[in-house]
Specification:
Blueprint: H1 3-17, H2 23-48, H3 56-72, H4 74-80, H5 89-112, H6 119-137, E1 147-148, E2 154-155, E3 158-159, H7 163-185, H8 188-196, H9 200-205, H10 210-236, E4 238-239, H11 246-259, H12 264-289, H13 296-310, H14 315-324, E5 352-363, E6 366-377, E7 381-385, H15 392-399, E8 407-412, E9 415-416, H16 422-427, E10 430-432, H17 445-452, H18 461-465, H19 470-486, H20 502-515, E11 520-524, H21 532-547, E12 551-555, H22 559-565, E13 568-573, E14 576-581, H23 583-587, H24 590-597, H25 604-607
Helix pairs in contact: 2-7, 2-10, 2-11, 2-12, 3-4, 3-5, 3-6, 3-10, 5-10, 7-10, 8-17, 11-12, 17-19, 17-20, 19-20
The structure holds adenosine-5'-diphosphate (ADP) and magnesium ion (MG).
Length: about 600
């Protein structure tokens, strides 16, 4: 049996049992569905997007209060009276909740998601608390007493007043959301979302607008929470602030983390475990301890410690690994029509690609780059060499938009790039690799390389969720596979990137840069960690790229590699250019010899 078949079987079996389950079980499973809907948003946000939120309960509240107000307040009744059929008002409430949540989440996200480290989670606690108290203190929302008398949902005259009728809707919404999120993650946009976790620099260099993607994921998670709140309100038929306090916000995070915050099904597993456990503990603990209180919180805390100790990624991956022994992998998707990717026409050989004009970078008192001037032309390999700490990586950051020069200017294909983010550099045709490899280690080589082609696709989130991106996706993956094969890693395309040797991971980064079809390629120590034959293969690849018209700027310590490959060499020392010329010229330059060998007469190639 395949995994997909098992999932389908479980859903069908569950649906068949549903009418015969005891009332209590039906209610518990309805709650599990509601919690899982919030937790699955947290998986997207926290486990996959790398942004921790303790404040999701506030968005659940927003969804619940929006519909409660619309359905019960005299003011809303006055406005809607006679115009909208009563059965439709709750659905209007859903719309109101989604719009409100969209606006609030976008505003909160735009302000708080810029924070990094611990500040973001702290901030989510702050607004989680603020919104909670706000709801409890607004008279028109019933204050602490809440708002009773919400109508039940109806679909085509069919009342969903009982959990047995509402539960299937809850689970249908959950499964639909999971399907859409699964599709999203399995797309070009999903790769960009996963890249967020590894930090701003790499994703931006691939052309991803990280600030925008972060806000979008945040809004998505908030909307899922709001839908859960809407369903909750019409299940309870009553809304008050208590179920939306910060404790519950923390519990949602528990669910995601215990289940497996990197996996959509982890959210369902976590919600199920925590909900069932909470039911049991609320019964057992007070009896055991002879006093009433929220003792389950303590057990949750210990459980969290245990799970994180033993199952760092949550329980789902372990479960999936064990079940993989009995399950066949899902069949590969059928071949799709491949659409054509946007192609860049490379500038003719000799044309100026990149121009650094007296680029200076100061870190406090340290001058890491001192008025560095350098050019890169199409169809040449230009090497940048210099001792450790000479400022080579800093210079790479200056000319790729990762960091702004303190003084001076960088021009890319004739356009001044001062102050522009690195995704604009990528858009104009700059591809790069990093000295310290920046790959998504647990994703396949293929996915990592496909991320490099991000800018060449256009299908957005909604269409990806609906699987309307297949032709483009097939083209992106085909392009990624082509680049991987070209770089000699065809045998590893489907292996996790982290399973490759470090030297090979550098080559994966080259393939990733090539997938973006760059005109200029910046390589920071590409040959480090490669064996002799691999270095030869790399040199061959770079020569071939040069012949195709790319301009390649390479930082490299292996002098033999550099001297055999480069057309021109620029030598940096203490942030300043001390020599520039052909390999033959540079090798005999007395200042270079001095810098490298402290005055020795030996030619550099031999020293390497
Ligand atoms: P290279 O790549 O040539 O080995 P780097 O560009 O990494 O050299 O570093 C050049 C100098 O700038 C070093 O002295 C380094 O310590 C310093 N430096 C680099 N990045 C920073 C930073 N973000 N803050 C302060 N100093 C830095
Ligand atoms: Mg460096």
């Amino acid at each position: 049996m395949t995994r997909r078949a098992l999932t389908l079987l479980c859903v069908v079996a569950f649906a068949l049992c549903w009418p015969f389950l005891p009332e209590f079980t039906v209610t518990v499973f309805s709650y599990i569905g509601l919690y899982a809907l919030v937790a699955v948003g947290l998986v997207m946000l926290t486990g996959i997007g790398g942004m921790t939120s303790f404040g999701q309960a506030a968005f659940v509240a927003l969804g619940a209060y929006a519909t409660a107000w619309l359905c019960t307040s005299p003011m809303a009744a006055g406005a809607l009276g006679g115009v909208v059929a009563p059965a439709l008002v709750p659905w209007l409430g859903l719309l109101l909740g989604l719009v409100l949540t969209y606006v609030v989440a976008w505003a909160l996200g735009a302000i708080t998601l810029k924070l990094s480290g611990h500040y973001l989670p702290l901030c989510t606690i702050a607004w989680g608390l603020s919104l909670y108290y706000l709801f409890g203190n607004l008279d028109f929302l019933g204050g602490q007493t809440g708002m009773p008398g919400l109508p039940a949902l109806t679909i085509g005259g069919w009342s969903l007043a009982q959990p047995r009728a509402l539960g299937p809707l809850i689970w249908a919404v959950l499964l639909l959301a999971m399907w859409a999120l699964h599709n999203l993650l399995d797309s070009r946009e999903g790769r960009a979302i996963r890249a967020l976790k590894s930090g701003r620099v790499m994703a931006e260099s691939m052309g991803v607008d990280t600030a925008r993607y972060r806000v979008k994921v945040f809004v998505l998670a908030a909307l899922l929470a709001a839908v859960s709140g809407w369903l909750y309100a019409h299940m309870q038929r009553f809304v008050n602030p208590t179920p939306f306090n910060i404790n519950i916000g923390i519990e949602y995070l528990f669910m995601a983390v215990v289940g497996g915050s990197g996996y959509l099904w982890g959210a369902v597993l976590g919600a199920t475990l925590i909900t069932l456990l909470k039911e049991q503990l609320q019964d057992i603990l007070p009896k055991l301890l002879g006093a009433s209180g929220n003792f389950e919180v303590i057990v949750f805390g210990l459980l969290m410690l245990f799970v994180l100790q033993r199952f760092a990624e949550g329980l789902w991956p372990t479960l999936a690994r064990v079940s993989a022994r009995f399950l066949k992998p899902d069949p590969l998707p059928k071949g799709h029509a491949v659409s054509a990717l946007a192609a860049r026409s490379l500038p003719p050989a000799g044309e100026l690609l990149l121009e650094a004009d007296r680029v200076t970078k100061r870190f406090g008192g340290l001058v890491a780059n001192d008025a560095v001037a350098m050019t890169l032309k199409a169809g040449e390999v230009h090497a940048l060499i210099g001792p450790n700490g000479a400022g080579k990586s800093t210079f790479f950051n200056m000319i790729s938009g990762v960091d702004d020069p303190s003084e001076g200017e960088v021009r890319l294909l004739g356009e001044a790039m001062t102050g522009k983010p690195s995704r604009d550099f990528a858009a104009r045709g700059l591809g790069r690799t990093f000295q310290h490899v920046r790959l998504l280690g647990n994703r396949s080589v293929l996915e990592n390389v496909a991320l490099g082609a991000h800018r060449r696709g256009h299908v957005g989130w909604i269409r990806s969720m609906l699987r309307l991106d297949r032709a483009e996706e097939a083209a992106l993956l085909a392009e990624a596979r082509r680049q991987i094969e070209r770089c000699g890693l065809g045998a590893h395309a489907d292996a996790p990137a982290a399973s490759l040797a470090l030297g090979q991971q550098r080559v994966v980064e080259i393939a990733r840069a090539l997938a973006g079809q760059p005109a200029a390629l910046l390589l920071d120590e590409p040959a480090a960690g490669l064996r002799h034959l691999e270095k030869q293969a790399l040199a061959e690849l770079l020569s071939q790229l040069r012949a195709e018209g790319l301009g390649i700027l390479v930082v490299e310590h292996d002098m033999e590699f550099v001297m055999n490959l480069a057309d021109r060499i620029t030598v940096l020392e203490f942030g300043a250019v001390i020599a520039e010329g052909t390999p033959a010229e540079v090798q005999v330059d007395p200042r270079v010899l001095d810098a490298y060998l402290g005055g020795s007469e030996e030619p550099m190639a031999e020293a390497a």
